[in-house]
Fold Periplasmic binding protein.
Amino acid sequence: MRNFNYFFRLIIGFFLISCTRNTSTSISNNNDDNCRSISHQMGEAKICDEPKRIVALGPNVLEPLLALQVQAIAFADHIGFYTKDYTNPLEQIPYLGKYINESMTNVGIAYTPNIEQILKVKPDLILGVEINNASQYEMLSKIAPTLILDWDKPMENMKTIAQAVNRETQAEELLQTTQAQIAKAKTEFAPVVKKHPKVLLLYAKGLQELISDNSRGLCSSLVKDLGFQLVSPPKSNPSQPDTRTPISLEILPQLEKADSIILLGYNFSQPETLKDIDNFAQHQLTETQQAWAKNEIAQSLEASKEGRVYYIPAYMCLGLTGAIGTELYLNELKTQLLPKL
């Protein structure tokens, strides 16, 4: 249950970081000529030489490392899909496993990492995100230089991590490539956008929880970058931004102006039931697909009648917000929304 509660927190972004930021730095014995001070969400960290023993607390920070062709020695996933060390990452880590060519120590869950395990691997750099690890920063920074990043700023995170691992040129190339991919895709999507411009984007666990959040994260920003207009549910205060809004099934008919619906499915209440990582996407979507197909209100919507309801795992764009995640999410949108040739 705790794993599910974390993911729900990530979706709704309810955490208000109350910890005081500081400018403490982790001290290294290396020659200062090879050191650099790197700013992050909690202050600054002093990093020397090129880190070789990196701990990644969450896929959000493992992803940019792998995109830069840098391996981590330890990893904590958002959800406890796998509890032992990652000796065969391809079969144990959703989406990113194929980019990993070394075994990694499992250091627990991203928001409650196992400090004892982190100490055992003797890291020279620890990467985390503010929504998960701000409260642990003081402890982590005593183990190794620690960078705490903002989940909702993937471009800045890529640049910060690149600075830490001496891959700044590669990072700029990756960012340019990603922007070019989006620009090209926007042209491909133009006919679809013209015909069906309005999209209702919902995070969904079955039909028990439907959440709209059009203001933050890759899940919504990429859809908007492609030219679509995101439909928002009615708000008690229209002047407020389109932040996290739980909505009931009964309100959906009031959103009839949506031409298409994208349901970002998630199901983490029993992660141990996932037996095969190859079935990860279906494991996340089945409950929502089945509930939507059986519900009279859902089926009464024009988007359902016209076959324009699409299902995508929320983990893809919530857990992977950088270059790899953007490409995966973009390809999934192309596969499902673009007409077949």
In short: The CA atoms of residues 87 and 103 lie 5 Å apart. The mean pLDDT is 87. The chain has two domains: 2-8+15-166, 188-337. DSSP finds 14 helices and 14 strands in the chain.
